[in-house]
Amino acid sequence: MLRIYIRMPTEATKRRLESIIAIHIKNGMVPQGALLRFIQDEGLQGLVEDTSHQLITVALPNDYNIEKIKEYIQNPHAWMNGALLSVERYSKTGINLHIHILRTGYKSKTLIIRDLSRRFKIETNFIDVQRGKTATDYNNRIQYLKGNKMDTEKMESVHQDEEWRQKEGLNTYYKINI
User: What is the pLDDT of residues 20-47, one digit of tens each?
Assistant: First the structure.
């Protein structure tokens, strides 16, 4: 399996590198030769690693008990080991309490939805599970969870979330270790 974590200086470089990597992955090859030279020429640090991941969004009622979320953070499902979790309350449309979870690897979408639906006592349609496999997607999603949104319109919501989390005693994000 091809695993790639790369720090990239520009969006254009990301797109160029991602397209080259995609060709190699499609052909089942590990990046070498021209791709390795490209990485060196651009001054990028490249490691071959699996970036298969899932981004899970759990939409909660706006009046949901924050203590129950904190309990889940302290006592998550076993499949959450190594995941990143963030709690957000604000969006462009106003108050919208939700949790983002980013986990590496793949777990059954049905299992994830069932487990979270039961734990948070919400309908299954309030849980979204997206799969990803590129290093760029994974790194962008990490930044998204940490509050580094690319959409400048969301920055006001990010600041409101920071203030709200501080008031509620929540961290910006959590690394789940079971």
Answer: 665 665 566 555 666 656 544 544 433 3
Q: How many Å apart are CA 97 and CA 91, to the nearest integer?
A: 9
**How far is 131 from 125, CA to CA, in rounded Å?**
17
Residue with tokens 């006001």: 156
Other Cβ atoms less than 10 A from the Cβ of 29: the count is 12
Q: What is the pTM of this model?
A: 0.72
Helix 109-120 × helix 66-74 angle, to 10°: 130
Q: Please give the CATH architecture assigned to the domain spanning 53-175.
A: 3-Layer(aba) Sandwich (3.40)
Q: Are 111 and 56 in contact (CB under 8 A)?
A: no
- Distance spanning both ends of the chain, measured CA to CA: 26
How far is it, in rounded angstroms, from Cα 87 to Cα 124? 19
CB 25 within 8 A of CB 2: yes
- For the chain, the domains span 3-50, 53-175
